[in-house]
Each structure stands twice: as C-alpha cells, then as structure tokens.
C-alpha cells in the first residue's frame, strides 16, 4: 500500500507542477522576442524623450546635451515653419483619407455586386498596396515629369500653362502628392469595405428591401451603419500612416517648391538630419507620436461609443 500511495502522490505532484513548468518554458521561449520588441520600440521612445529635454547638436558648438527642460517644446510655439508643416499634414490626412474612404466604399460596393470577376478585381486591388513607396514615388515622378510625363501632357492638352511642370509649381505639387497617396491606399479601404460587406448578416438587408428601401437608402441607413466599426478601423490606420508620410514626399518634391509641400515628418527629418538639431527633432517626434495616439483613441471612442449607445 505504501508503494501505491507513494506513486499516487508523485503523480499528483507531477500533475500540479506541470502547468508551472509550461508557464516557465513559455516565458523562456518568449523572452527573446519581448526583449527585442522592447529594444526596438520602448528604448528609442525613452531615449528620444530624454533627448527632447536636452540641447544636443552634432555640428552646433556648445550644444553637447545639457538639460534645457521644455525649451525645445516652447520653440515649436514660435516656429512658423513647424506650424506650416502641421497645416500641410492636417490637410494631407483629412483630404487624402476622406477621398480614399469615399472611393473605397464605392469600389467595395461595386466589386461586391459583381456576379463574375470578383476575385480578379480583388487581386488587382492588391497591386498598389504591395508596391513599396520608393517604387510608387519613382513611378509617379515619371508621370509628373515636366518634359515627358503623362499627366503633364494631359495638363498641356487641357490648355493649362505649367512651364515648371506639376511638381515644380507650388500650387500643384501638394495636390499631386494627395493624388499619389489616394492611388496607393484607396484599395486598402475598398478591401475593408468588401470584407465587411461579405460578412454582414443578410436579415437587415432583406428587411430593408421588404420595407421598400431602394439601393441608396439601404446603403445609407442599413449597410454603412453596420460597417461603421470597420470603417473606423480603416480610417484610424490610414490617418496614423498618412500623418507619418515621408517616402513619397521626399522622392517626388523634397518638400518643395520652397516649403509648399513640406509635411511635418519631412520637416522633422530636415531639422534632425539636415540641420543636425537632434534635440529639437526628438521633441518634434515626441509631439507627433502623442498627437497620433490622441487622434487614434479619440476616433475609436467616438465611433465605438456611439455604436454602444445605438
């Protein structure tokens, strides 16, 4: 009996200790990825935050990292170039994302209504998204070229004089950036709408048809309200990505002519890596990060809060 009891006790201890050993094994296996994630995200943020409270430059004498408190942040309040770049970024995000949302809804609804060829068009939507921003920038650089660009030819055909080309004119360079971004990211919104339409329950749509609602009324009062959470996620993702736009702007215009297309991320790059004002550039990055988080949280609370009330 003692041998049997001892074996039962040992088995019970083994079963009790098994989850703990699994948890320890999981912690050991996940530790490298957690350490790497902290190293590439949390450490740069904390380092930039510390740098933003200092006076450090690689080329300006005397700026060797002394603690200056909020001086870099107060400098933004009187920096006209900074506020100009903020205004351009806000216009870029609001106009660009709004156009992408509207066109994405139209494309998603049209593709969802197709009886054949849906997979082909869905696959074609992926093409602009899988191209790198560098390739897109170079491609549209050819299209906007002042000598042989397609868009330049169409502008000249319409009788609009642009001697310096589309990208060389302060009035058209910034809209050209918005056009490029809309072409790249409208398929993203369309795919979100298409996935949402295919996942919607059919009962509300059938009830609307029975009540005599037309296509537009059903879309406006039934379909779009049910898609609102998905659309909110898409808008937040696009807004967070658009406010950090750098690649295409740098390739197409470089912020010019003058600073007519210098968005806030390009302005931050110029301050930190062209003028070598590292502390001021770090402060700009921290402000941009905080504003992006506030906007994202605000949109989510507004959309999902209204959804809960409904």
Report, as a whole number of angstroms, the end-to-end distance: 67 Å
**Poorly predicted regions:** 13-18
The proportion of residues forming helix, as a percent range, comes to over 70%
Oligomeric state of the chains present here: single chain
Q: Calculate the mean pLDDT score and round it.
A: 83
Q: What characterizes the major β-sheet?
A: 2 strands, antiparallel
Sheet-strand content, in percent, reads under 5%
Quickly count the helices: 12
* Number of extended strands: 2
Side-by-side strand order of the widest sheet:
1-2
User: Could you give the order of the helices and strands?
Assistant: HEEHHHHHHHHHHH
Taken from the alpha-carbon principal axes, the silhouette is: globular
Structural class: mainly alpha
Using only CA atoms, what is the Rg?
27 Å
